[in-house]
Specification:
This protein has about 900 residues and is of the alpha+beta class. It contains 23 helices and 40 strands.
Amino acid sequence: MTMAITMRAAGLATAGLALALTPVLAREPAAPQRQTETDPALRMASALVARMTIAEKLPQLLNVAPAIPRLNVPAYNWWTESLHGALGARNTTNFPEPIGLAATFDAPLVHDVAGAIGTEVRALHTLARQTGRVGHIGTGLDTWSPNINIFRDPRWGRGQETYGEDPFLTATMGVAFVRGMQGPNPDRPQVIATPKHFAVHSGPEGTRHEANVFVSAHDLEDTYLPAFRAAIVEGRAGSVMCAYNRIDGQPACASDLLLREHLRGAWGFTGYVVSDCDAVKDIADNHKYAPDGATAVAAAMRAGVDSECNNATLGDTAGLEDRYREALRRNLITEGDIDRTLVRLFAARYRNGDLPGLAGAPAAVPVSAIAAPAHRALALAAAERSMVLLKNDGALPLRAGTKVAVIGPLGDATRVLRGNYSSGLSGPPVSVLDGLRATLGASQVTLVPFGESMTDGDRIPTTVLQTPDGKPGLLARYYNPATPLPAFYAPGTREKTVAAVTYQSEPVATRIEPDVGDRNLDLARVADVHRTVWTGFLVPAETGSYRVGLSGAGGTLELDGRIVSDRRKARWNDLAGMTTVKLVAGRRYAIKAEGSGIDLVWKRISDAPAAALKRAAADADVLVAVVGLTSDLEAEETGVTVPGFAGGDKTTLDLPADQLAMLDQARATGKPIVLVAMNGSPINLAWAKANAAAVLEAWYPGETGGLAAANILTGRTNPSGRLPLTFYRSVADLPPFGDYAMTGRTYRYFTGTPVYPFGHGLSYTRFAYGPLTVTPARGEAEAGLRVTTRLTNTGDRPGEDVAQLYLTFPDRPGMPRLALRGFQRVALRPGEARTVTFDLSPRDLSSVAPDGARSVAAGRYRVTVGGGQPGTAPGSTATFTTRQSQELPK
């Protein structure tokens, strides 16, 4: 840590007290008058805000912004999620988890995926307009995506939401997502993108609300900020979300370093800032940086936060604006501060077309655009390109006529496909079992049910559900609250206790639903907080043992009059509550489920899994073992503590013990094992590397993931993904999880031997790289340079290679071992060759000194272009020299 940072941190110790006592502190500068005059969105927003009373202004500062009928302003909810698919009350398209999208090394693909998601977000907004429920979560024309934090440690449960461990890859994918989501004109965005969580945020989950992260000036500039800078400066994202943690003593949502110095200062950001949910509350409640709620909201607003997400808005917003009223009364903020932030928020609503009148604003998208067939096809293409073939001893591709036994807890699983920040409301999910039966033939593929495990819980298919009168689906009755919501929804309450609400005795709506999913957005009469009762029958197609229950929180499930799952005291992301039952094919089992935000889940299991595996292996040519984790185990801030997992984070890189035991049993059969891993983070694949005939990393691949895996396993699709992460052997190889220093982390600074390195990935064909040509711009390398090579498919199959460019820098303190600075996905037919060109800017060539200064350093560089890191894949190398150092701005 430099002296400048040390002094800054020391000076923050009394900042909360000073803010409480002194109403006159430096405020974020107001937008220049010239900008307001020349920007029509700002001009219109300023005129609107000028007509509002203070009573109308204050509630607009929260993520649930109420309607202002007097001014014809409809309600608006800023809480919209679309990390890898729009989340709403319709079946939307579920794409691979972002870590899988990163593994495509395909920025144009990510751009198209984001564009498709944005189309569905706009269509959900149209649906809400039609039913008058625009204040409902998931109906806004902004999105709290992408997550461009750096996945610095494999234990982090939310790393699956990111684009991996490398700042350059993350920045490139983040910009592609932002541009795809916002559309071709960022001044008239289709949907406003919100890169998050700004900044220096990547676990542990259990301490995120109070963590005080001290990070060196070098690591801040070299690792944690480049992707955010790119998303703002190059991608022109219209919003950004600040994080929970403190950095150098100041909460991220009240940080001078982040919000003033970098975001609005060096990067010239003019959009709006939204807080992570309850991050403003944390300023007082957990960080103790401010003495009370009024001071906390003042600290955030004066640093530049415009919209506060507060979890209490999941119930009722009553009273939440009182903290701002108190801050105003105590002169901690002024009405001018409020106006400045509201102008930014309303300008955004004009720009995206939520409020009418701005020329060129995007047009409405029809509801029919949700889950369009073209989007499902794109999801399949993305899943295929995301999967990484890590090992192949000749077992793949599987030939026609091969008899396959699918083993492991995830072979027939569908919940695992969609990862976190998703819902069961997506296109029909395709498991690996289903995919292999579709590609090889059902008679060639046998399922071996697993025993009870931590990976229980797939949504019960609609095909086995019947209404009380025998129709497909379940009968749903919707009940609204009978009285106003009680006081437990007031500020300071973290958990919603739906059971305390009194509901009307008669339903406001009754209809048949496919299952227990929340599809009620099109029912205008149903309140946002409501009770739903589903009744009908479960009619299994096969006799056997099943784990049956509910996921989610706040509900109960009865089976034949007996409660088999009670979620009334569960958290929303706890493991599913399951009960083992014997079910007979064709028999009707009465079901009654009630609650909201729940899923009806089950899992077919074996009473004697080891014996079943041995019998199936005797008749099989190949064992396809589908193993891994689920996003119920590695997740966001859970209450789950089981072997290997704590609060959403991992405590080990090993597979669960029951899966390792099964793999040993499979090896004992003598049959070749093809291991398919589904996970959102690095796991220890040392066993698979030593014992499996082939290893395919499939991530959480989205709704079509099982078909994508089958297409690769059978050779219909050539594997082409590359690892966006280092796969380590053990957490013992890494520094402590809570240490944010980059020394010893990621391929750039790790000096050990990984199981599989960043950038690794195999193909069914072969590629060769010709010599490199390095051409400096204007005769001086420090001004930029062009690198070219000739890439040839020397194999006998068409395929795609990912050409990766790495730099090794002049030797000086703080330099990484090497760093990715370019990549291109290239498709070639057998024998085809193509020239591949990389144009490197001074920023691409730059590195960071210990004091945080970024420059193109003088000295000798090595550049390598190949199918992976230097020395791990075919490639070519050259050197060049810069004569003098060139400093670059932040």
